[in-house]
């Protein structure tokens, strides 16, 4: 999506007053884009949420979009039909319907239909354990990444700070669409279609609602409202459970077991039916220490699926207590090993994979021992998560 910079800011960046330098510093542009909106998700007091009834007026809204500008209901007053999709990044059902929603936009945009999407979820109400089908959270920056990656052809708006506007519409799940007529009266609310798996549905319910609304025809009562199947809305007043789960994770036992070279070889051969992510690290390795919490988040994200994270310390065996102290500090409640030898070259011979012995080293290993993805040096967390979730053993859909 094209970035938007308010004109007065852009002129300031260019410099007024006769400067011949027409170049614009990239950091200044990014700073200007960020200045228009700074996300600040908060815990809010719970309030009743009721789904908008057929015939009711569309509640007004003013929300920031990933395109760098605010969007209001009145911006689309000239459109015959308005379709609002309450969706998000992380939900597998939402992801399953992305292409179908994009197809609707392509088909109906030149017929007087305006499509937008709103993420109502609070980022502070989403646990890592709820991100097992995605590589992204529901924060505003992640929305920008998702919109660009999937080439969204519609405005994608954020309402995750305090849900000021989403609660007025009352979505029950992601995705949940609302179709409004020219007068912005609700004509349809519910699912996009009744078949979640990509390729098995063609947005039949949404298409029917749009066509009837364009023609000024009310929908039959049995088709004007349908259940919206998907992930529950992550309202910010529901984060007590999030806090509890996070605290429970910190209370889990953290152990460190010494293994022989032969045992290390077995770890790398991965005689399981799961993806195995192995990170080689040491307490004396600065980059290892800095990036290590990313692996704990990844384990929490994908640990309930066909996936496991294994940490392998290459500290000297006599430094076991130091390594264990670090692991406990990072709440590494996963499988943790320390190779029981001082011979680092013997370890290199076991690991192979053109490894020169420098740390950190991260290997994503398929069942049977094939290295699917290798990262010598520090990881790019997003790139690694994408490799995991897009692997056939994991996947983004049910």
Give the secondary structure arrangement, pairings included.
Blueprint: H1 7-14, H2 26-35, E1 62-64, E2 70-72, E3 81-86, H3 92-96, H4 98-108, E4 113-119, H5 140-149, E5 156-158, H6 166-169, E6 173-174, E7 176-180, E8 186-190, H7 204-214, H8 221-224, E9 231-232, H9 239-250, E10 257-259, H10 261-269, E11 275-281, H11 286-302, E12 307-313, H12 320-329, E13 335-339, H13 344-351, E14 361-365, E15 371-376, H14 381-389
Parallel strand pairs: 3-4, 4-5, 10-13, 11-12, 12-13
Antiparallel strand pairs: 1-2, 3-7, 6-9, 7-8, 11-14, 14-15
Put simply, the count of helices is 14
How much β-strand is present in the residues? 15-25%
**End-to-end distance:** 29 Å
**Low-pLDDT runs:** 1-23
Instruction: Sketch the major β-sheet.
Output: 6 strands, mixed
Main sheet: which strands, in order across? 10-13-12-11-14-15
Helices and strands, in N-to-C order?
HHEEEHHEHEHEEEHHEHEHEHEHEHEEH
């Amino acid at each position: 999506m094209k970035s938007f910079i308010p004109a007065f800011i852009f002129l300031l960046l260019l410099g007024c007053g006769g400067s011949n330098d027409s170049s614009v510093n990239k950091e200044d542009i990014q700073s200007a884009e960020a200045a228009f909106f700074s996300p600040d998700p908060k815990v809010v007091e719970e309030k009743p949420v009721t789904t908008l009834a057929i015939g009711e007026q569309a509640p007004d809204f003013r929300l920031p979009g990933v395109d760098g500008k605010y969007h209001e209901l009145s911006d689309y007053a000239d459109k015959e039909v308005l379709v609002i999709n309450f969706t998000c990044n992380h939900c597998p059902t939402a992801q399953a319907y992305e292409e179908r929603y994009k197809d609707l936009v392509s088909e109906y945009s030149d017929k007087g239909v305006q499509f937008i999407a709103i993420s109502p979820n609070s980022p502070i109400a989403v646990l890592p354990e709820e991100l097992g089908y995605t590589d992204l959270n529901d924060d505003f920056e992640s929305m920008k990444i998702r919109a660009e990656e999937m080439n969204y052809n519609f405005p994608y708006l954020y309402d995750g700070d305090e849900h000021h506007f989403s609660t007025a519409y009352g979505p029950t799940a992601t995705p949940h669409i609302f179709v409004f007529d020219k007068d912005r009266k609700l004509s349809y609310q519910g699912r996009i279609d009744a078949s979640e798996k990509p390729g098995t549905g063609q947005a039949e319910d949404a298409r029917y609602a749009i066509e009837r609304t364009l023609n000024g025809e009310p929908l039959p009562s049995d088709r004007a409202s349908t259940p919206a199947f998907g992930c529950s809305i992550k309202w910010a007043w529901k984060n007590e459970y999030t806090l509890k789960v996070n605290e429970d994770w910190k209370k889990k036992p953290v152990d460190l077991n010494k293994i022989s070279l032969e045992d290390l070889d077995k770890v790398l051969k991965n005689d399981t039916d799961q993806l195995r992510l192995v990170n080689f690290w040491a307490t004396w390795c600065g980059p290892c220490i800095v990036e290590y919490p990313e692996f704990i988040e990844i384990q929490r994200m994908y640990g309930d699926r066909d996936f496991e994270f294994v940490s392998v310390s290459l500290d000297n065996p006599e430094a076991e207590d130091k390594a264990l102290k670090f692991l406990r500090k990072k709440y590494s409640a996963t499988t943790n090993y320390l190779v029981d030898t001082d011979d680092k070259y013997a370890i290199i011979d076991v690991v192979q994979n053109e490894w020169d012995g420098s740390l950190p080293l991260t290997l994503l290993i398929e069942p049977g021992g094939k290295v699917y993805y290798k990262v010598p040096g520090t990881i790019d967390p997003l790139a690694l998560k994408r490799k995991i979730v897009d692997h056939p053993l994991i996947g983004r859909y049910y």
